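Work Package 3 (structural annotation) set out to generate three-dimensional models for the target panel prioritized at the project kickoff. During this period the team completed the workflow that converts sequence records into discrete structure tokens, so that structures can be stored uniformly alongside our sequence database. As a representative example, we reproduce one entry of 328 residues exactly as it appears in the project archive.
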Amino acid sequence: MGILKKDTEKVYTIYSERELKVLSFQAFGTLCKVKFPLCDSINHKLVFEEIVCWVSSFEKRYSRYLPDSWISTVNASAGTKPVQLSSNDNHVLKAASFAFFQSNQTIDPSCLPLALLWQKAKDQNQVPKDIEIKRAKALVNWQLVQISEDEIYLPMEGMGLDFGGFGKEYAADQVSSLLMDLSCENFLVDFGGDIFAAGYADEECSWKVGIEMPDGNQNPAFIVNLTNRGLATSGNYRKFFDLNGRRYGHTIDHRTGYPTIHSELSASLISSSCLKSGIVSTACLMLGGQHALRVINSAWDLEGCIQSFDSPLLSNKFHTYLCNEGIR
């Protein structure tokens, strides 16, 4: 295993895994991997440096946890002044609008006031008061955000953007596009379980990816074949917290102002993009099992499963992706 360092902040590793060359690094608060078949004739070092450079730049600009990021500047300027946009910013904001409308408005990129309120509640081990939730909800409305060709403006002080509901999935798709521009045909991008698989893992063999069980069992619930498809899983079974004897999931429903956790603990969706899969899988957690399944079955470009501790709910054609072989 080799350890390299391209930029001044992000360390990454390169190693071989069976017949694959793997790039591994930390980003978006999780472990990220990009895999390539060893048989492909590509300049791995050059490609890996391009990936890490892109991800590092993306995080520096759009992480709300960095005080000098572009998104932090937008949030700090809420109610006072507009902020300039770059062409890349416009692309990300279009993805934000796509998340809002594709999720039937259950994902709101302006949800920062509620996210901060519930983070404070978690830290202080105290459920927010109704008036606090009401005030935070009043500041969450993506349709109020004013976006022109070269500026963005949050019209009320206290408003704030948080791209955590779609940013990692968007990044997975963008890195995949970057790799295609670099003439890479076969690869698998895995950003903490948000995946895009292009081409084949080996000699016309599609990529095989495991979908884990929500009960923590090490064996996967399903193994799926992926070729030129995105897979994303959203779940409350890992990220949750307890307050006053009640369990809360990490997904906040801005319509109610409260975190939501259904008995359905995870939703895994396959579509033409990781972004779309991630958006709909998150929306499924808010809709509940049967309603979510109807949404999936009514879409032409979605297949997947919803898992709880009971029997899983599978979409109409999900079985076409299933395999019984080992995980690639």
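Confidence is low (pLDDT under 50) at residues 1-8.
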